[in-house]
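Support reply, case 0932

Customer input (verbatim):
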Amino acid sequence: MELNINKHELALSDEERNHTPEPANLLEGMKTIVQYSEDSALCDTYFENVKVPMAYLCRRLSLTPTQVTLLAVVMELGCQMHVFLGRIARHLDISNLDMLSRSADLTTLITRRLITENRKARETSYTVPREVYDAFKRNEVYDFKLPRLRNDEELANQLDKMLLNLGERESEKEVEFFDSDVRDLLHANAHIRLARILLTVFRKTTEEEFRVVLLMSMIWIRDEETVVDGNSFRIVFNRKFEIRQMINKLQSGRSILVKKGVLKVASNEGLMSVGAFSLTSKFRKALTPDRITNKEAEEWCKLLTRHTDIQQKALFYNPEAEAEIRRLEQLMQPEQMSDVLARMKKRGLRSGFTCLLYGGPGTGKTETVLQLARSCERDIFQVDVSKLRSKWYGESEKIVKGVFDEYRRMVRHSKVAPILFFNEADAIFNRRMENAERSTDKGENALQNIILQEMETLDGILIATTNLQDNLDAAFERRFLYKLFLDKPTTEVKAQIWQSMLPDLSEKEAKTLANKFDFSGGEIENVVRKGFIDEVMTGEKTSLNALLTLCQNEMLNNKRTKVVGFVHHGGQ
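Our regenerated output:
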């Protein structure tokens, strides 16, 4: 009669057991376990025979003896392929039911990411991730750690990769791991803006709803797709009925995602689409505040005056103003300003550039800004001051805040920061009301406080002009780094302006006009323009006497005429 005796049921002698010393490394230890576990039925004798290497592995891996054994077998049998539950059972010489009783140990290995479970086939199978093999080769314990990321882009890439892996999953259980992994990843990287936004949604939704938001968010961030078909939800759900339930929940508006304005049912030409959804524009803006949509790019084209569209124009200033403007022009050159602002930041100084041009009408304030922009190759975002106020309480503050928010985005998306230009700023930068009691006065003060705060934290260039500098609040005056007074031109400068606009004038005639009429540059330009119109209409060149008549007409009540040293002979 032949006896069927399992070799591992025979205990090793003390001398034989000494032949299984503590292994030199993890791989050596696992090889020993694989060798002795074959046909062992996981009996007590087996564990006694591998007592020394098992103690080493349990200590290093923080696993139980049974968990170490299962890991070693899966590593051996699943090195190049998935290993089925039955194959593991045959190696150990135990029944499939006995193998199923070890499911808690397998779950521990799965949770530790030492093995992965696959359920695509009828029978469950397991494999060991490459990262685990690589760690064992280095004699290191594989410790699954969530990456510490630096910014929105890195986090989005990591989440996108996790979604891609989820879409290729081989086990339904991977969806559960995905939920916990994403949650842990976001908590571990809560210093990142995008993580905080997603965590806010996560705390208010179910795991199923959050998966939908995450999927749609990554599609928006990666592909800029605004509409997602509900069929795409199969990436984050295991079963079709789960997808149908989620679509119905969203379509009916019962989901917290719809109620809180995170996503909405997509519409096509005003009609709601069945089973298609989109993130709301507000939530998309929160996800990607720096992204410029095609619509926004079109709006910016309307708002910005391109420096290439500004015609070059010769301007003449009094000597002191000329020197200051040339300094500003040098400072505002992109390379020069970048260097100066970087050094200011390094010194802990505010780096925003603010400048006020003030003086009487027609002294060239607006044109100076245009020519500075052209020379320094900076576009201009000119604020329409008349549109900053609303009749609705609290709306004006939102409008002003929106202007500065929009400018910040322009700066971030521009190689060269544009100029934020407030023309005739006294209408908005005026004195604040003391002891304001009326709601309108309080609203006005609140509006100006917002502007003051924005100027304090400005990262860019703000230039304002005013004719009424005495109306400015003292707090606004302090916020302007440069304050440049453009006075009426001197007689010498006026003569230059006359000759630059009318090159046919002799030097004597230009000086005569400059002496007789106390005009600003803007008033001289008005006279020249009207003279040109007369030339076009009559076909005759404008004479000096015609110019004199036009000059007289330009003045109101003849208050600014100098009669000394000039004789009008009459006639042409």
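We compared this against your earlier run and they match. Two observations from our side: Confidence is low (pLDDT under 50) at residues 1-5, 560-572. The two ends are 146 Å apart (CA to CA). Please reopen the case if you see a mismatch on your end.
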